[in-house]
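Ticket #4471: structure export looks truncated?
Reporter: QA, pipeline team
Priority: medium

Steps to reproduce: submit the single chain below to the structure queue and open the exported record.
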Amino acid sequence: MPDHSAPDTDPSNSKMSDPDVRIQHDGEEHDSGHNDRLNWLRAGVLGANDGIVSVAGLVVGVAGATTNQGTLLTAGIAGMVAGAVSMALGEYVSVSSQRDAERDLIAKEKLELHEDPEAELAELAAIYEKKGLHPTTAHQVAQELTEHDVLAAHLDAELGIDPDDLTNPINAAIASAIAFTIGAALPLAAILLPPPAWRAVTTFVVVLIALAITGYVSAAIGGGSRPRATLRLVVGGAVAMAATYGIGTLFNTPVS
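Actual output as written to the record:
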């Protein structure tokens, strides 16, 4: 039987000696564009959720005050357009700041590699040693990755950054605006299509179902608890609509 009592420290027998191999956690991918896809997917899900909740709260509140369809349509479209623009701008600014920070870190790492490459090599080897590699293997891995692409090796190991896969603020802004508009269209349609007596109830049901779906999808993308995320959104959306509907009915109640 083979002896498993001691680790194999021969670099030639370790997959880590392959310069194309990257240390990664379970579930991580390093294919080009992966981080950017996740970024705009996240922006899209959040945008849809905000579109559903904000416009639902708006039109349900207005419905509590009036049954006039023109007023409901005007309020819904105004909320949809304003919200989509706001979401896109906010996402663009946020992701642009993240991209700027990533570029600053890349520039800093380039400078450190230029000024003291030996110290950086030792630092890279120490990182892999802390991950569990034998010192000899860790140094060999660091050396081969340095020869293959020194900047990429350090950015990946030290900062978790892929220089070819930085976040894209334009993609995130577009995804957020489109998703917000699609999400906002659901409560707007739900409040306009049914007869006046069924508008509020129909909107409540449609919105809560939509929030349950977006909560599940957001948890699936982020790797969180699906039931917990779904429950949070459903309860939050129900409270928001109940509050705005209550406020709307106050303006529809004659004051003696």
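Status: closed, not a bug. The export was complete when the record was re-opened. Leaving a note from the reviewer for reference: The longest helix spans residues 69-115.
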